[in-house]
TrEMBL record:
Family assignment from sequence similarity: Belongs to the RLP family.
Classification lineage: Eukaryota, Viridiplantae, Streptophyta, Embryophyta, Tracheophyta
Domain Leucine-rich repeat-containing N-terminal plant-type residue range list: 35-88
Keywords: Cell membrane, Glycoprotein, Leucine-rich repeat, Membrane, Receptor, Repeat, Signal, Transmembrane, Transmembrane helix
The protein's name: Receptor-like protein 12
Length: 999
């Protein structure tokens, strides 16, 4: 069964508390027997399914009363009216009610199923089973007496048949599915359902694809309607206003229909509506009409909405609201505590906004003092919210300390203050009602308070990414028997597992102890057979992987991260059957490459010492999305089957190994490959033409191989290509004119250095490098996705780096160490966003263009070892970002410019040009050779002979010049090791041959 990720399942469990799961029992009077035809049909129906004992959707609920194998009581020798889930009609003995909700049934419902012979059914509930994407057959329309039909969350798929409209007696219809199901409802079927089901009071179509439906179809729904659920149905267009005028409507859920528009009716009217969910729609929320007309509202969900008018002006009118969600709306300022009725609120969700300030305080009379006002005014906002069960302020900018009154709320079950700027110690919690506590990504310090270890109802605890410290014995959590998720990662804790004997956490699904100074494999986990996610990265485990570890959660484990430790030895055969994510990066593991199960989506095993060839079993990993085997000692050929993964594979990173042979030529049409990195191997031959099918390709790094080919100008049509690195291969010949009208439009990085390219510089390509001409990127954004950050090797200012994160505005051209000839066109000066330009070690002639002074973002410029003549234009002194400049070994003459950046460059920038004069050279200029300078004003910096080009931030008269990534090269003072890695200084001087010209 396809299973949603853990957060979705956890949210699902909250919803299910409100679901009806009552067991129907027999209403048959004693002495009457079940109709034999119905008994036989039920037994056949039972035998057509297996019972799923590992449905994680249900197990994660941790509520055994919510599911059971009802059919276990169905025995042939017993009256079927006594069976669990069966209701019979008194007089005839016919089955009129069948409730198998949460029954763990698994299998297909076929069109000839015996279920359809139960013609007297009035109530049918098959919800929360697994029918393996069976269709909803038209025969469901044959239950003409049906009043209640519930097929929800049971993995049905396909079109909803129009025959459902034949069930004219229906009062309740629930066809909602999980978000990954593929159920479709078209306009024709919906219109028939709306027209014929005139008694309908409850309609639930959550997650049903209605992208082709016109929302106007809903305006004719039954006037008896009380509940309308259309969550995440791909609805688009204008939703009819008349729906809100329904006289009996109590609940409307239109959430997550991102293209659904509409307005509230503006006339004076009164609605009985109690629950309104418009989150993530484009329906205009008019606070004035909302507060005036919806007097009965109790639950209001307006996450990520479009608002008309100030919500502060009308929020105080919602005195009856019990559950309020205003998350994700970029509301700012301080939380309007004074406008909230804290006496009635049970649920308050304000996450994902820009709220600032501190929590209000409590006075001696147990009233809150609003932080919106001066405390000297003693402005009271009411009593402590004693009925509050859920408070979510995640993802704001709240500061100060956590108030102690939060720890004493008697009904609080869910508290999430993650991703704020809260500081100080964690408060003590007197209330034992808490089931979920998240304080992650704040600035909290001190030790974990003692009271947390006493919260016996706690199921979710997340204290990650703070400054908590101290030694922590894991046994302190021994009382938390209901714990399903524990995250203590990235603090300053030292977790030990001493004194743990038979302590177990039977409900534990997620454990994250990354960066907790763990020095051993936690043996206590050996019997945690329900563990699904385990993260022990960035620790101090220095040992072989023990054999018992490979059996840990072998049926349940889905995510395992042991990266950034010191693991040694071989891995052996992996036994986890349902693994999705495996990360063994940055260890010292050896031996043959281990292969995870076919269920794996993400496989990271880079920076180890694995040897040998790729096992053929790697071809079984057809679900892979990211495969990272980089920086090992793997050899042999790359299996052709790798190209067949391209329908799912997004990242293939095999860099820095010893693979030889040719690049697989099996990339198929429609693939989604985004990153292909084969840098640093021994690959030969030419580029495979099927690379042209990789329309999603953004990064192509083939550097440091032995590929022999002409320039692949056919790649210019790839619409998303941003990085093209062909350096240090055997590419040859001239680069011809583009074959398409707009070539390489999104290219940020192009490196053709150290090849055998010849002919003129490809000026026509320079004219169309849109991303380098005018980059629209702002802020620190990196290339990559989800679990993977793109990495490439580039030469910056003469040093080769492995950039472990690529900023989207990083732009560079490196054509060095080829035999390009001719003049440098002024077209290059149009590349205003260019950070680095290296044309060194070629055979270029002519002069340095004065227009180069217009490339205001240029940080390094290397034109050394060419045949350039003339002077150095004074306009280059306007390049205030320039920190590396090299024109050595040319034939330049005249005075060197001075002022600003040029006062920082040393002799080696100009050596080998006998005609140059002026500082920093010892040769002075004659009277007729005044050095050109930029307009120098009072306050400019003095000459800096001690300038270190590694420093990226440099201040001048015009202000601070910010280089790439606010320190991607701050090498002299604690560079971030996750961002850039020095590979080594390289200087190339070699002779290249011109072997081919363009036809």
């Amino acid at each position: 069964m396809v299973v949603p990720p853990l957060p979705a399942l956890y949210y699902l469990s909250i919803q299910l508390y409100s679901c009806s799961s009552s067991n129907s029992s027999s209403s048959l009077s004693s002495g009457h027997l079940c109709h034999p035809d119905d008994s036989s049909a039920l037994l056949q129906f039972k035998n057509s399914f297996s019972i799923d004992t590992s449905s994680l959707e249900f197990e994660l609920l941790n509520e055994t009363t919510l599911y059971s194998n009802r059919t276990i009581s169905w025995q042939k020798d017993k009256d079927c009216c006594t069976w669990s889930g069966i209701t019979c009609e008194n007089m005839t003995g016919h089955v009129v009610g069948l409730n198998l909700s949460f029954g763990r049934l698994q299998g297909n419902i076929h069109s000839n199923s015996s279920l359809f012979s139960l013609g007297h059914l009035k109530r049918l509930d098959l919800s929360y089973n697994d029918f393996s994407f069976s269709p909803i057959w038209s025969k469901f329309g044959g239950f003409v007496s049906m009043t209640h039909l519930d097929l929800s969350r049971s993995n049905f798929s396909g079109p909803i048949p129009s025959e459902i409209s034949h069930l004219s007696n229906l009062v309740s219809l629930n066809l909602s599915q999980f978000f990954f199901s593929n159920m479709i409802l078209d306009t024709l079927s919906l219109n028939r359902i709306v027209q014929n089901l005139t008694n309908l009071r409850e309609l639930d179509l959550d997650f049903v694809d209605m992208s082709s439906v016109l929302p106007d179809s809903f305006k004719n729904l039954s006037s008896s309607l009380t509940t309308l659920r259309l969550f995440d149905c791909y609805l688009q267009g204008k939703f009819p206003e008349s729906i809100f005028h329904r006289p009996n409507l109590r609940l409307v859920d239109l959430g997550n229909n991102y293209n659904l528009t509409g307005y509230f009716p503006k006339s004076n009217w009164s609605s009985p509506l109690e629950t309104l969910h418009l989150s993530s729609t484009r329906i205009s929320v008019d606070w004035h009409h909302l507060t005036r007309n919806f007097k009965s509202l109790r639950d209001l969900y307006l996450r990520n909405c479009s608002f008309v008018g100030s919500y502060l002006a009308f929020l105080g009118n919602f005195t009856q609201i019990m559950r309020l969600d205003l998350s994700g709306n970029n509301f700012g300022g301080q939380i309007p505590w004074s406008l909230l009725n804290l006496e009635t609120l049970t649920y308050l969700e304000l996450s994902g906004n820009n709220y600032v300030g501190q929590f209000p305080e409590v006075d001696s009379n147990s009233t809150l003092i609003s932080s919106l006002y001066d405390f000297s005014k003693q402005q009271l906002v009411g009593p402590i919210p004693r009925h509050l069960t859920e408070l979510n302020l995640y993802g704001n900018q709240l500061n100060g300390t956590i108030p102690s009154w939060l720890g004493s709320l008697p009904s609080l079950e869910w508290l999430d203050l993650g991703i704020n700027q809260l500081s100080g110690n964690i408060i003590e919690f007197q209330s034992r009602s808490l089931s979920r506590l998240s304080l992650s990504a704040n600035k909290l310090d001190g030790v974990i308070p003692r009271s947390i270890y006493e919260l016996v109802n706690l199921r979710w605890l997340d204290l990650s990414s703070n400054n908590l410290g101290g030694n922590l014995e894991f046994e302190k959590f021994s009382k938390l028997r209901s714990l399903s998720a524990l995250n203590l990662s990235f603090n300053h804790l030292s977790v030990s597992f001493n004194h743990l004997n038979n302590n177990t956490w039977p409900q534990l699904r997620l454990l994250d102890l990354s960066s907790c100074n763990i020095s051993e494999f936690p043996y206590v986990l050996r019997i945690s057979q329900n563990l699904e996610r385990l993260y022990l990265s960035h620790s101090r485990i220095q040992a072989d992987i023990p054999k018992w570890w490979l059996d840990l959660g072998k049926d349940s484990l889905r995510y395992l991260d042991l990266s950034h430790n010191s693991l040694t030895g071989t891995v052996g055969q992996l036994r986890w059957k349902n693994l999705i994510y495996l990360d063994l990066r940055n260890n010292s593991l050896q031996g043959e490459l281990p292969i995870p199960p076919p269920s794996t989506y993400y496989f990271f095993i880079s920076n180890n010492q694995f040897t040998g060839e790729m096992p053929p079993t790697i071809c079984s990993l057809s679900m892979l999305q990211i495969l990272d085997l980089s920086n090992n000692k793997l050899s042999g050929k790359i299996h052709q089957c790798i190209g067949n993964f391209s329908q799912s594979l997004s990242v293939l990173d095999l860099r820095n190994n010893k693979f030889h042979g040719v690049i697989p030529d099996t990339f198929s049409k429609g693939n989604i490959l985004r990153n292909l990195n084969l840098y640093g191997n021994q690959l030969e031959g030419s580029l495979p033409p099927t690379l042209l099918t990789c329309r999603e390709l953004e990064v192509l790094d083939l550097g440091n191989n032995k590929i022999e080919d002409t320039f692949p100008n056919w790649l210019e049509s790839l619409p998303k290509l941003q990085v093209l690195i062909l350096r240090s291969n055997k590419f040859y010949g001239e680069i011809c004119i583009p074959k398409t009208k707009f070539p390489f439009q999104k290219l940020h990085i192009i490196d053709l250095s150290n090849n055998r390219f010849s002919g003129l510089l490809p000026t026509k390509y320079f004219e169309h490098l849109t991303a380098m001409i005018n980059s629209q990127e702002h802020g620190l954004k990196y290339m990559g996705e989800g679990y993977y950050q793109d990495t490439v090797a580039v030469t910056i200012k003469g040093i080769e780096f492995e950039m472990e994160k690529i900023l989207t505005f990083f732009t560079t051209i490196d054509f060095s160490n080829n035999t390009f000839r001719g003049e440098i066109s002024s077209v290059i000066s149009k590349l205003k966003s260019l950070k680095g330009l290296n044309l060194s070690h070629n055979e270029l002639t002519g002069t340095i263009r004065p227009s180069f002074g217009e490339m205001s973002n240029l940080e390094w410029l290397d034109l050394s070892s060419n045949k350039l003549v003339g002077d150095i234009p004074g306009q280059l002194a306007n390049l205030t970002s320039l920190s590396k400049f090299n024109v050595s070994k040319n034939q330049l003459v005249g005075p060197i410019p001075h002022g600003k950046q040029f006062d920082t460059f040393e002799n080696d920038s100009y050596s080998g040009n006998t005609g140059l004069c002026g500082l920093p050279l010892s040769k002075t200029c004659g009277a007729h050779q005044s050095p050109p300078s930029s307009f120098r004003q009072e306050g400019d910096l003095e000459h800096g002979n001690g300038f270190d080009w590694k420093v990226v931030l440099m201040g001048y008269a015009s202000g601070v010049v910010i280089g790439i990534s606010v320190g991607y090269l701050v090498l002299s003072n604690g560079k971030p090791n996750w961002l850039v890695k020095v590979v080594g200084r390289k200087q190339y001087r070699r002779t290249v041959e011109i072997t081919q010209r363009c036809a």
